């Protein structure tokens, strides 16, 4: 509500503090998704100050604000040097999704008439989003059931004259493994097709892991046939959100990502990104973070992240009823359960102990699992995390799997969700254990409210999402999507 008269700044900040009381903590390493922590407060402080300094600079017109051009050149150059092609042209974007959107647009415009994007089933949904927005078609290919890397023969069989872009991940988010980029890029090049590497997670980490001794396969612009690569700086660059870089092999392809319009009598329209007006704050925050850490800072973070990932994977393998999916090549660990240990119940138990582990639903033969993102601060708390996982696994074993009422998934799948208004849908959600009603500020505990299996109520025993996730897991992907859209609508109603 808009107040009749302006409020003092101290009141506003106090309200923000109260509103944030129910949020997951962004520092300390107990939240294993969404946030990235160096464990170095001075680095984050430098980024925040730089962000605020450039907050009101508008990146719409580079001729009006040359400071942002200078900063973007430096940030893009740093990414290009790290990712195998010094001097490669690029674009600073708001995040991985926007980088991917622009990569798909560039491919579409570079190959008129080609409308297909070939990608592994483990590729990020941002490609599906880009295809939906840009009128493209997704052609999914399977991954190896043991390694979870994209099947090279399947990629080769899927690429044809209708293909605009082939995608590989470095790594894929679900299991943290790097697709066979060299083989996939060679297939694309042999067919005259563009190849994009989604290194949004790994682009700013894999080079430092390699320096720390990890066996990192070739994945960047140094690989023949790779024509573009995306790299998020607000992940393992540790910059404030949103900050990503999209690099191209040549300037001609970068120009395909741009948009210009002269079909109106107003100011000149030329955009490098999906957005038009946008703050230079994220760019300055990214620049300051890179400058504050420097190469040695990132080397040290790479070394600690690699050690923490190895210790975490080894520790999880020693816990009865749990297993690590694949061999994590970066800092992402996927933990599957067993008939005795339900990972959704385990996640709820960990949440009660103050730790957030991200549930991932089953898909394309890959079992439901828990995702853990290891960051620079994880090493100091890896033993505590393993203790929480072990205790939570034992509690999950004692409780048994989350119960799904007989016939409920079939009933939900048969519903015409578009025929239900938000209030009716909220009642339906409550019947399967999730309360979408408002929570009092500051009164939300570790299990309160959620949309996608992250932090909702509903188990009836102190909060949890196990039953909800179990129901979602039993539904086809299309029905899951429809339900999630309705959840979001109700939460913002």
UniProtKB/TrEMBL annotation:
InterPro entries referenced in this protein's UniProt entry, alphabetically: GrpII_AminoAcid_Decarb, PyrdxlP-dep_de-COase, PyrdxlP-dep_Trfase, PyrdxlP-dep_Trfase_major, PyrdxlP-dep_Trfase_small
Entry keywords, A to Z: Aminotransferase, Lyase, Pyridoxal phosphate, Transferase
Cofactors, names only: pyridoxal 5'-phosphate
Any one GO molecular function term: transaminase activity
Domain of life: Bacteria
UniProt region (Disordered), positions on chain: 439-460
Start-end of Gly residues biased regions: 444-460
Family: Belongs to the group II decarboxylase family. Sphingosine-1-phosphate lyase subfamily.
Protein name according to UniProt: Aspartate aminotransferase family protein
Organism (species): Microbispora corallina
């Amino acid at each position: 509500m808009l107040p009749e008269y302006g409020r003092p700044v101290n009141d506003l900040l106090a309200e923000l503090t109260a509103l944030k009381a129910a949020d997951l903590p962004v520092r300390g390493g107990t939240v294993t998704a969404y946030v990235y922590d160096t464990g170095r407060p001075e680095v984050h402080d430098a980024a925040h100050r730089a962000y605020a300094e450039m907050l009101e600079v508008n990146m719409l017109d580079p001729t009006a604000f040359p400071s942002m051009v200078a900063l973007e050149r430096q940030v893009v150059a740093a990414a290009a040097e790290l990712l195998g092609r010094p001097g490669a042209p690029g674009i600073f974007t708001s995040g991985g999704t926007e980088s991917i959107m622009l990569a798909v647009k560039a491919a579409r415009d570079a190959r008129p008439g080609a409308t297909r994007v070939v990608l592994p089933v483990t590729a990020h949904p941002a490609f599906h989003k880009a295809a939906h927005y840009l009128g493209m078609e997704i052609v999914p290919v399977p991954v190896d059931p043991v390694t979870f890397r994209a099947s090279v023969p399947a990629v080769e069989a899927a690429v044809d004259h209708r293909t605009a872009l082939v995608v590989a991940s470095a790594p894929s988010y679900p299991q943290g493994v790097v697709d066979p980029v060299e083989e996939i890029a060679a297939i694309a090049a042999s067919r005259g097709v563009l190849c994009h590497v989604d290194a949004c997670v790994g682009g700013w980490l894999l080079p430092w892991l390699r320096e720390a001794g990890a066996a990192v396969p070739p994945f960047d612009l140094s690989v023949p046939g790779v024509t573009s690569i995306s790299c998020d700086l607000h992940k393992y660059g540790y910059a404030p959100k949103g900050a990503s870089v999209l690099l191209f092999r040549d300037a001609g392809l970068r120009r395909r990502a741009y948009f210009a319009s002269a079909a109106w009598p107003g100011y000149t329209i030329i955009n490098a990104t999906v957005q038009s007006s946008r703050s230079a704050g994220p760019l300055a925050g990214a620049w300051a973070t890179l400058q504050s850490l420097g190469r040695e800072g990132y080397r040290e973070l790479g070394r600690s992240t690699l050690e923490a990932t190895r210790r975490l994977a080894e520790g999880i393998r020693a816990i009865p009823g749990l297993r690590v999916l694949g061999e994590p090549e970066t800092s992402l660990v996927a933990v599957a359960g067993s008939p005795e240990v339900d990972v959704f119940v385990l996640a709820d138990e960990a949440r009660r102990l103050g730790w957030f582990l991200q549930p991932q639903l089953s898909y394309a033969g890959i079992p439901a699992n828990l995702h853990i993102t290891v960051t620079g601060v994880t090493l100091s708390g890896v033993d505590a995390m393993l203790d929480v996982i072990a205790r939570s696994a034992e509690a999950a074993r004692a409780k048994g799997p989350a119960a799904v009422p007989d016939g409920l998934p079939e009933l939900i799948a048969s519903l015409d969700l578009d025929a239900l208004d938000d209030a009716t849908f909220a009642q339906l959600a409550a019947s399967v254990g999730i309360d979408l009603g408002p929570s009092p500020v500051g009164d939300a505990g570790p299990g309160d409210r959620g949309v996608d299996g992250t932090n909702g109520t509903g188990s009836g025993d102190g909060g949890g999402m196990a039953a909800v996730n179990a129901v979602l897991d039993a539904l086809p992907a299309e029905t899951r999507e429809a339900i999630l859209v309705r959840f979001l609508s109700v939460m913002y109603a």
